[in-house]
Design goal:
2 copies of one chain form a homodimer. In chain A, the strands form 4 sheets. The first copy, chain A, has an 8-stranded mixed beta sheet with strand order 4-11-10-9-8-5-6-7, sandwiched between helices. By secondary structure, chain A is an alpha/beta fold. Chain A has helices at 11-14, 16-19, 32-45, 58-65, 69-81, 135-140, 146-152, 171-184, 199-213, 228-241, 255-263, 280-286, 307-318, 376-387, 392-404, 406-432, 453-459, 473-482, 511-530, and strands spanning 85-87, 93-95, 157-158, 222-225, 248-251, 270-274, 277-278, 290-293, 322-326, 350-355, 367-370, 437-439, 446-450, 485-486, 488-489, 501-505.
Chain lengths: 531, 531
């Protein structure tokens, strides 16, 4: 990191004591270095000093605390010795490894940092950590808790995919809708409800899907769920009860979705994805009775399912196949209207799932599924015995936002903002990652980048690194995290070997932050280019 | 123990107040028994009164404290009821079980009249209806959707149990808290979160349980769930994965809870409940590795688990038994403070579950469980793959209501209102259902009424009806529904034959509506009396 792109955390260099809320008056008379090292550890563990941030210069901090510079130097030395910070020459002293938050801090995320099971193809779930796990293990062998573990690690720049611009959450509109809902509710509305969800939201979702996804849905077929993740669990339970033991998935395809299906005891045979989407011939050859698809914007490649493949899939469904359509970010299409959902072509044989996670916020845990008539009753029963149905208030607030036009306004606003952020991401990749190939930028909230052999050759990237397999995308993600940048390695999402790559979210970050994060990736790769 | 070998603690007999450092000047003007019971608990928990020591004679302590002997007797009675001391005849009143240090809650418990179901013959459970249920089939053979079906039938008067006064939902306080939460949230708070729930609510729940249920809980052990129903599903999944195939249940006991356990493939062998609660000897004899209990206010009988039973259950847990404690309405206790939860006595081996369904509204779908350490990681994983955790906004609003005192104010308000409604229910039963026996009125939101043979005879009720078995409580409920009154037949909740009866909720209705509903029940039964 050089001065020009050091960014916001340069502040800590000039006002470290303030920023860290340190006051030497709290310190003991003796053992000042111990005290300071302890304070800095605390700041790293609670995220005030995220990974990648720079510690204040020793001279500056010593001056602010009115202690000798030796005290600060010694404290830094201790953190270096225990591996949490590293001297980076002119770049200063940088936080490189997380400190697990102890159980003594009740407000902190206690998920230990990554303790993944060893074999990524094993669906038995996470094993207990035997000790503090390393960031490397997180990337090379992601366990069932990998997303929790990633979230628990503070980092200065988060380029994880799947996140809209959360700062744009329409707080005022939400609160206004909630006030109006609370004023109109009858006492009975506060009681137990239909496990399928409130009639108002089921109607609003049917209307929303008609307007935005080309689907003509009967509100009776809408089941309100706690997000697509829950929908996957429900359909997996129902299929499993019906004797089905596998659901094919796209490859590459979402690691998280695969983990959910496996938790619910479905195997997930991989079907290759090419430039037109899933290979339906391979699906047919594989013989699975069901498949999970992301047709509008394949995750992670961003491919839009081609017309002939869609028609071929419909033929596959008509002879008994079941499609689970995860329409996770289809509304976010920038250059033309979104392609209609598969469910718009056929009702029987397609279980459609969507949510507000990418429209409003994942924290709302609110989504919907359209059950194929054949499975509807079983899905309602599975939902009933999961939680008796979603909470009523947020459902009614969302219904109002959908019916008032507020949600479409929000979507238009987000599309404009996200498009600018996408363009910034692509420009930064062009500037800092020569030879990297960008995929799937026409829609969604992320791009996929691959470092293919051809790319290395033409762009001059480290063929001695990636190409030989000695430096993997997991290594790149681990090193990026050590420098304060969260990214997902493409290898997380593939079940079969593929080119090294990254999945990079752009929607949640300003162009400046994105550019800075990509520049750091470039810094990591540049020496490998020279070697 | 007799006087001659009573040992050192004979001192307490002659100078109890001094020994215990008690001074009645510290006591409040009202509630002397509460105060004294609290002081004695403190003395037990901090070791001044170790296990095996004898409490001072009531006469002696009353004299020393210059209070009436009734005050002391009642304080001792509370300790007996919550299982910490036992009357030992001439040996006096002896400390028999420890109190965790923070569990110094004043407790309670008059013994409600019991409704021992007799005649253990058959344990057949509910069968699924094969077609659209008629009201009769609904009551005689309730299926998995019985509660949804009941809710869908309009009725003028709803005396179903389990519902607080929903009209009292604190809309203004909720909206105020939500505004303040929305104003304080960071963008990251709108993202995916810890599957265990937000740190703020987990801390608030731990504090709430300490204040209201005598439980000392580590927030790290709190898992926020979508109500007790979800908690049952999660624990059932985890047990089932561990090879456990049955969870014993109280009989009579909640039909809904039994349906949930069975959905998750656990058998539910019935264990009889008598006037002191579940028969622990029968539980032991039955041999199930786990049991679902409602110790504070048994559903539906309303029995409070007696002290000796509590101790016996703790012995059962210590040799490997697992208790799932459904604390569904314990805060609603009218004549004295609630008895502490079983979880206050032991952490390992007790999985505690509670919710806001009876405090605020079932429609919030918000509750908590305290995992036994052994099962914590597996329960977190089950929650993750159910819905990735509860929605964040309602959690944060609830946390604020709990920490601000608003929720405790709401509870005090509800207690007063519910008590008047309970009294109205009891008066109406006395006026319109002569011979009906009321059970479990000291707490909760419902009473159980039985029509026993003796009752029919002495009260003049239709022995030609109930007593001969030709007119069942399911018939009564069906006919009541036909006349616009929803009630639950007691037979729903029993797995083995028991006396005919009804479970009647009073909290959600005004005294006038309740009286009208009970009068209609009387109308239905009167002609049968004459016949």
């Amino acid at each position: 990191m050089n001065r020009s792109n050091a960014g916001a955390f340069d502040r800590s260099i000039t006002s470290g004591a303030d920023f860290l809320q340190l006051s030497v008056e709290d310190a003991p008379v003796r053992g000042l270095s111990d005290w300071l090292a302890g304070q800095l550890r605390l700041a790293i563990s609670d995220g005030r000093l995220p990974i990648g941030s720079r510690l204040p210069a020793t001279r500056v901090l010593a001056g602010e605390l009115r202690v000798s510079r030796g005290v600060v130097t010694e404290a830094y030395q201790r953190l270096i010795e225990d591996g949490h910070v590293a001297g980076r020459g002119r770049a200063g002293t940088v936080v490189v490894a997380p400190i697990p938050v102890t159980a003594a801090l009740p407000t902190a995320a206690a998920t230990p940092i990554a303790a993944p099971p060893t074999d990524p193809t094993d669906a038995t779930g996470p094993t207990d950590p035997t000790g503090p796990a390393t960031a490397d293990a997180l990337f090379t062998a992601p366990g069932a808790d990998v997303f929790d573990a990633m979230r628990a690690i503070p980092a200065r720049i988060d380029l994880s995919p799947g996140m809209p611009d959360l700062g744009a959450f329409p707080r005022t509109a939400w609160l206004r809708a909630e006030r109006s809902v609370l004023g109109a509710l009858s006492a009975a509305d506060f009681g137990y409800g239909d496990p399928r969800g409130t009639p108002a939201l089921r109607l609003a979702v049917a209307n929303w899907l008609a307007r935005n996804r080309g689907i003509r849905a009967d509100p009776e077929d809408v089941i309100v769920v706690a997000g697509v993740a829950q929908a996957l669990g429900l359909i997996a339970q129902v299929l499993r009860d019906g004797g089905i033991t596998e659901m094919a998935v796209e490859d590459p395809g979402s690691l998280g979705a695969r983990q959910h299906l496996r938790h619910w005891r479905l195997d997930t045979p991989p079907i290759p994805v090419d430039a037109e989407g899933i290979r339906v011939d391979e699906l047919r050859a594989q013989g699975a009775p069901a498949v999970l698809l992301t047709p509008a914007h394949q995750f992670p490649t961003g491919v839009v399912l081609a017309g002939e493949r869609r028609r071929d899939l419909m033929r596959w469904v008509r002879v008994g196949g079941l499609i689970v359509e995860d329409d996770y970010d289809a509304e976010h299409r920038y250059d033309r209207p979104p392609v209609p959902a598969l469910r718009s072509m056929l009702t029987e044989g397609i279980c459609y799932a969507g949510s507000v996670s990418k429209l409003l916020a994942p924290a709302l845990r609110l989504g919907w599924m359209l059950a194929p008539p054949k499975y509807r009753d079983a899905l309602v029963e599975a939902k009933r015995f999961t939680d008796l149905g979603n909470a009523a208030l947020p459902q009614l607030v969302l219904a109002r936002l959908m019916e008032s036009g507020d949600l479409e306004r929000q979507l238009r606003f987000l599309r404009g903002r996200h498009r600018r952020r996408r363009d910034a991401m692509i420009a930064a990749i062009g500037a800092h990652l020569p030879g990297a190939v960008v995929h799937g930028a026409a829609a969604g909230l992320h791009v996929m980048v691959t470092f293919e052999a051809a790319g290395f050759a033409s762009g001059g990237f480290a063929s001695a690194g990636f190409a030989s397999g000695r430096f993997t995308d997991a290594d790149l993600a681990a090193e990026a995290l050590a420098r304060g940048v969260k990214v997902q390695p493409l290898s997380w999402h593939g079940q079969r070997p593929g080119p090294p790559g990254l999945v990079l979210g752009y929607a949640a970050n300003t162009p400046t932050v994105t550019a800075e994060g990509i520049a750091i990736l470039g810094d990591i790769l540049r020496p490998r280019h020279r070697s």
